[in-house]
UniProtKB/TrEMBL annotation:
One of its GO terms (biological process) is proteolysis. It comes from Piromyces finnis. This is Creatinase/aminopeptidase. PANTHER family: XAA-PRO AMINOPEPTIDASE 3. Its cofactor is Mn(2+). Gene3D superfamilies: Creatinase/methionine aminopeptidase superfamily (3.90.230.10), Creatinase/prolidase N-terminal domain (3.40.350.10). Residues 87-223 form the Aminopeptidase P N-terminal domain. GO terms for cellular component: mitochondrion.
């Protein structure tokens, strides 16, 4: 069967995506998306409803403003079949299908996005979506939520009910276009869509319907944390909940700084309503007396571990996006090297970096940059960035960019005056050699874990520093010289899939940071020429079968490279 035949079958009256081998899967996806996209299909066949299957592969799908970047508004940045840059509607469909495959029939998934958040009264932050919600939907607007109901009798094995802000010409004049309910169905492939303030009512209807059909409480998976107390193993005690999802109203000056009271009354919060459902669950579904406190009974579960397992292994399209943001980060670091000179302030370098990543179309910084000169480099998360750059000092800069919902996380250390001193050069080269060794350990073949790489790093660091200081450096002392871990998982979030253990064997397609550091305090135990030196070198690495891929190799880190770039300064 060739790729044209596969596409024909997909558009046939049966609307059926059959079992196909890996090669045919790739051909099919490339035909649909027009790019080299490889994904893992669910184990069971995927059937799409008549209302969605043809539209997924139709040409010029988005023909109106849907409240976020699209091929209609930005054809130079996003293709016609993509919901977010680099990610097709079909890919999001598969994300949901894989999730649904892992949960029991008749289960419910309740997952929310973020609302608009405010720095202070009337001053809102640029919107940033919850990444788990984004991973399943591609919806990058405030006040969205989704309920997925697993039902294996349905064409695509689940029903998706979407909640978002409805169209409102008056408010959209202030805040810009919204997706609206019709477009949630048309472009985000929902079966039904309702205003976000109807969430409580619809969730109650869905649960009540399940109670009638399956004669039991359905298992509810959610990204909202619900916590209640069990008293004497009988009834849950009423307890104040920290709400994590609020209707955020609007950014317009007509209601600036406020959360609409009526909307709050109608919506309440997703977390508080889930708690109300929890309080109705029968006693026998709660923990026994041996477990007096519980976040929830056995029918309320976190969806985060399931989504994290999918997000842990990156698809080729994700690696492509991570490579692009890595390249942008490299260019920004080079410009920051060139802009460095004594007498400037740390925040000047922060500004150079931020300008250069955003000039290259990155939407955000990954996090507040650490721009730590001199003794400030001894503090892991120094972000004041307000000190003058002094001749002879080093600068440690930990910074990254976010491009199309994927991030970079990079650290480099370089001299203010453009030339490493002898002590600085010695410590830097020692650390760079160790970092390269740790990167080479990032393979499936090696059988390593992040924790094992960290242990190896500390062992070698202790050995090498013992030579530099002409005395024995203990493992405990090394832990103090570098108090942070060698690395973490990353992807859509800087600290991606945080609930995944660092003791998990490395698998092909994982993306991790490798960031060894040396921070020598002002302490008489250390030679004076080394005191106050803080160095960290960090890269973003794709775990390979036999060889790792450095996504941020474009960011210079060799001593001669850095000094050559800085020699070009005006």
């Amino acid at each position: 069967m060739n790729d044209n035949k596969i596409l024909t079958n997909f558009n046939s009256s049966q609307q059926f995506l059959p079992y196909i081998d890996n090669l045919k899967r790739k051909l099919f996806l490339n035909k649909c998306t027009g790019r080299n996209t490889v994904i893992n299909l669910p184990k069971t066949p995927l059937v799409l409803s008549n209302s969605h299957s043809i539209s997924i592969v139709s040409k010029n799908e988005v023909k109106e403003n849907i409240g976020q970047i699209s091929s209609f508004t930005h054809p130079e940045l996003i293709k016609s079949l993509e919901i977010t840059p680099g990610v097709s509607s079909l890919q999001y469909e598969f994300h949901r299908a894989k999730l649904i495959e892992e949960i029991p029939n008749h289960s419910i998934v309740v997952i929310s996005g973020y609302g608009l958040r405010y720095m202070t009264k009337g001053i809102f932050y640029k919107f940033h979506q919850n990444t788990d919600f984004l991973y399943l939907t591609g919806f990058n607007q405030p006040d969205g939520a989704v309920i997925l109901e697993k039902d294996i009798s349905l064409p695509r094995k689940y029903k998706m009910t979407f909640f978002c802000l409805p169209k409102n010409k008056k408010l959209e004049r202030w805040d810009g276009p919204r997706c609206g309910l019709n477009n949630a169905i048309k472009y985000f492939k929902a079966d039904e869509a309702f205003p976000i303030n109807q969430f409580n009512k619809k969730l109650q209807e869905i649960v009540n319907k399940k109670l009638q059909t399956i004669k039991d409480f359905p298992t509810i998976y959610s990204n909202i944390f619900i916590k209640v107390n069990v008293v004497d193993s009988t009834l849950p005690e009423k307890q104040q909940i920290v709400d994590t999802f609020n209707y955020s109203s609007t950014a317009s000056t007509m209601s600036v700084g406020n959360t609409d009271p009526d909307a709050s009354d109608q919506m309440a919060t997703l977390s508080s309503y889930l708690r109300k459902i929890t309080l109705k669950i029968p006693k026998n579904r709660w923990p026994t007396e041996s477990s007096p406190y519980s976040r929830n009974p056995d029918v309320i579960k976190s969806i985060i571990p399931l989504i994290s397992n999918f997000r842990l292994i990156k698809s080729s399209y994700e690696i492509d996006l991570l490579k692009k943001v890595g390249d942008i980060t490299g260019e920004a670091f080079i410009e920051t090297f060139k802009g460095t000179k004594p007498g400037l302030y740390e925040n000047h370098l922060e500004a150079i970096f931020e300008f250069n990543v955003k000039y290259r179309n990155a939407q955000f910084l990954s996090y507040i940059p650490v721009v730590a000169s001199g003794k400030n480099s001894l503090f892991m998360h120094y972000v004041d960035n307000n000190c003058k750059l002094n001749d002879g000092d080093l600068i440690l800069m930990d910074a990254g960019a976010e491009l199309n919902h994927y991030v970079s996380d990079v650290t480099r250390t370089w001299p203010v005056n453009g030339t490493f001193s002898k002590p600085q050069r010695k410590i830097y080269q020692l650390l760079l050699d160790i970092q390269k060794m740790c990167i080479n350990m990032c393979t499936v073949k090696s059988g390593n874990t992040l924790n094992r790489i960290h242990q190896r790093f500390l062992d070698i660091l202790a050995k090498e520093l013992s030579k530099v200081f002409n005395r024995q450096v203990s493992w405990m002392e090394t832990n103090d010289i570098c108090p942070h871990h060698i690395g973490h998982y990353m992807g859509m979030d800087v600290h991606d899939t945080e609930d995944i253990s660092r003791s998990l064997p490395l698998k092909e397609g994982m993306v991790i940071t490798i960031e060894p550091g040396i921070y020598i305090p002002y302490d008489d135990r250390y030679p004076k020429e080394y005191q106050g030196i803080g160095i960290r070198i960090e890269d973003d690495i794709v775990v390979g079968s036999k060889k790792p891929i450095n996504l941020t190799k474009s960011v210079p880190k060799e001593i001669n490279e850095i000094e050559a770039i800085m020699a070009e300064r005006k």
